[in-house]
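User: For my dataset I need records formatted as: sequence, then structure tokens, nothing else. Please produce one.
Assistant:
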Amino acid sequence: MARTITITLTYDLNEQVQVGDLLFYQANGSTTVTELGTIATINFTTKIITVSISDITKAPSQNDYVFFAKNNKAHQADIIGYFAEAVMRNNSTEEAELFQLSAEIAESSK
């Protein structure tokens, strides 16, 4: 089961935070990071975030450090690695030309 909690912050929200991002917290004085859940709603004016969390997840306390992270699968933009292959086909019977082809590649390790 899941429940929804509302977190009201005293500081301005990071402009990069979006609905669907993961919200985490670190209890004051602790080194343990706890994943709260997925951000359901954000109100930048009132600094309120609503989060869907599981029933067994402990909600953060007033002085805990709250932060967010992007979903890596949803926000991955570059091709990573040493090898990539692209196949282009033209099934037209008429003459066609390819004017430009480019790629943005980031090497994943050295």
